[in-house]
Amino acid sequence: MTPLYATLQRRFKAAPLGSLRSQLLRWLLIPLVLLVALNAVSLYDNALDAADMAYDRSLLASTRALAERVAIKEGKVVADVPYVALDSFETDTLGRIYYKVSGIDGETVSGFDDLPPVPANVPRSEAYPALVRFYHADYNGEQVRIAALLQPVYDDSMRGIALIQVGETLDARRGLSRKILFDTLLRQAVMVLAVASLVWFAVRLVLRPLMRLKIEVENRALNDLSDVDQALVHKEVRPLVAAMNGTMSRMHNLIASQRRFIADASHQLRTPLTVLKTQAELALRENDAAAMREIVKSIAATTDATVHLANRLLTLARVEHGSEASSMAPVSLTAIVRQVGLEMALPAVQKQIDLSLDAPDDALVDGQALMLHELVTNLVDNAIRYTPAGGRVALRVERQAAGVLLQVEDSGCGIVETERDKVLTPFYRSASAMDINPAGTGLGLAIVREVALLHRARVALDAAAGNKGLRVRIMFAAAL
Known about the structure:
single chain, Heat Shock Protein 90, 5-stranded mixed β-sheet, 12 helices, histidine kinase
């Protein structure tokens, strides 16, 4: 990752997103303007080079015209330079012309004697098949461009090299440069405006499906959580629409779950509340203290059962909504099972049930301690509740290659194979369980299933050893 890319990425994360249209226009038009500016500079330089070459060619032509009039007469270099020889060139350039013809020994033969000499470091021009050098100099307070041509001269008595210099002021070149600059900027500005208009229109056209999607979502009814048609947008945006559809599907399931929970809770609570009302009315009409005491005991028992049901309902709601899923951490399943065993020891002793624990010193799983405690409590409570007096309940925790296995086995009535999946749903009770405990809630194993799902664990029910009783196995992934 380059430093520039990393810097841009940090700035994008820190800056608010703002308008997608404006960002697209900025990221398209700003680089375009910069590229057009660089292109304008390049075109301007190329045009100046072409103009300089054209002017230098004309300057060389004038220098050669003068060179043709240089000859040797009577042992001296002479130059027959009428003004008309430079008149056409002066008219073309619209600038002032200066010239100088120097003899073999450097003496001035004709022209302006003080015209600047050729600098020593000026190389010969490779663009023309002539011994010519071009250079800039200051003359009479003005900048001039001078062509210096070495011209061989000879006759029967002598031979040598004469130097012909022709200079012109830069007025014409500067005028042409300004014209080239203005023309280049004008063409580039027109091109930028045209491209900007096309880009704006293209961005507006491309973003139109998003606006249709926005309108379609805004116009939906509050209870409409159906999928949005992915064909409304481009394929690059379809993953976003698919994610929206997934979110709305989860919201639909959550709302349906809440409605189902409210319906089930109201149905389950209606019966004990009706019983409580009936018992209270009987107590009000009863005059016998002993009979009233029995009714009050019934009210207390019904109240306990109702509180137990309400607590189970609240636990199930909390687990189903995943309120604890964000607080996963490595916890000791062994410690939780041992704690639950101690808490349930008294009910086991009261029923003369042999409650045993077989677990390693420590077995870690990723989970939420309170929810795991609720899971183990429900398993052990169900095992003790549906195991007859003198039976056994065995708790085991094993570390295996696939993870950590929790196993609760009892010698109770068991569950027939056809009902083992059904008892994991809320409020379903097997026939054998209803015979033993008619006042049960049917929520214990449903809570176990929801807690296991929250921890991504697998629940399996089968017959205990000797095909008597129930064995519940839950496989957890080991903590990382």
